[in-house]
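Running this now, will post back.
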Amino acid sequence: MNPVNSARKALLIGYGNDLRGDDCAGRRVAEAIADCDIENIEVRSVHQLTPDLAPLIAVSDLAIFADASAEPLDRDIRVRLLTPTAPAMDGAHSGSAAELLGLSEWLYGKCPEAYAIDIFATDFEFSLTPSPRTGAAIEAAIQCVHDLSSGNLGDY
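Update: finished.
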């Protein structure tokens, strides 16, 4: 088991579509971390971000969101510090990570430190496997989750 700060409760939410090639990246990261069975990291692998995740966010000290990036990236992963934004009150079932943080703050009065891990992706066609470059980016994102959960932001 990896050395981790046990006083800090982390939540990893990996999301995307397993049937759309590289879009599976966030879920693959979540599944790999879940397989590690790290005591202080709760893991969710979901198709999309939905309001029912807000209670989990509210009881966490750290929230990490992993997703394939539709934007071009000049490296395998990009890590961004997230700040809460006002949640959309339009009845939609999904929103952004920042909106979920805002919903957690609005409903529960708590918003943890939060990061987005954007994972290099270019192929969103129907496929059950990511492209080779995204496969390598998934591995980098897995290491990044370990680093973030242990308090080390590194050079991301």
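Residues 1-6 have pLDDT under 50 and may be disordered. More later if anyone needs it.
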